[in-house]
Amino acid sequence: MSVSVVRLLVAILASVLVLVGCSVNGTAPKPLPTSAPSRDGVPSSPPAPSASATARDDLRSGELKRKLTWDDLTADVTYSTALPAQGWTADAYKPLEVVVTAKGTGHPRPRVYLSRVTVYVTARDETGQLGGPQPQVDEATISPGYAVTAPQSYQRAFIIPGVDIDATALTIDVTYEFLLRQGRANQRDYAKRAGSDGLTVALR
């Protein structure tokens, strides 16, 4: 074997030893974190749902009364259902009856009209929201709205359709839009008041 060939083999062997040494002694890259850390270094995660979100059952007795108040208006609202508690299952159609009567303040006392009611339903389980059906809207077909000055009242049954079969509770949010007629009966000056209310119903 010639001297030049021996020198070439020695050079190749030396290069291989250098590469092996770099691989053994080098620092391996750190793996990427599986979740983004928060400022205190603890991996962030979604907040745990409140236990009361699914434990409440506002219609356990079949009826719930609420009072909504503004500076110049008080509305008494009653929620009820003809369906027994055991019938409130995820896939069933569930009736919710809403009755509203109101009283304004001032002199002369204003007439009160309900111009719009919107019902939002959200299904939930132990981990959070599961979505829900489209909002149901009852907009008055007469002007200025439905007369609800006590003892007159608004009464409507909203039918809640089936939701995700894994749902354990429903959150029901209802918004109300009122018009108050100011002054004498022949005047057409109105003030608008809007508010919302919410209830939670357990599913069986």
Please describe what this structure looks like.
By secondary structure, the chain is mainly beta. It has a single domain, classed as Sandwich (Immunoglobulin-like). The protein is built from two helices and ten strands; from the N terminus they run H-H-E-E-E-E-E-E-E-E-E-E. The protein has helices at residues 3-25, 51-55; strands at residues 63-69, 73-80, 94-104, 111-125, 128-131, 136-139, 146-147, 154-160, 169-182, 189-202. Strands 4, 5, 6, 7, 9 and 10 form a six-stranded antiparallel β-sheet that branches. A hairpin with a 6-residue loop joins strand 9 and strand 10 (189-202). The chain is elongated and about 55 Å long. The protein starts with a helix and ends with a strand.
CATH superfamily: ApaG domain
For the sheet with most strands, the description reads: 6 strands, antiparallel
SS summary, helix count: 2
Q: Secondary-structure element sequence?
A: HHEEEEEEEEEE
Label the CATH architecture: Sandwich
Extended strand count: 10
Anisotropy-based shape: elongated
CATH class: Mainly Beta
Named CATH topology = Immunoglobulin-like
Amount of helix:
10-25%
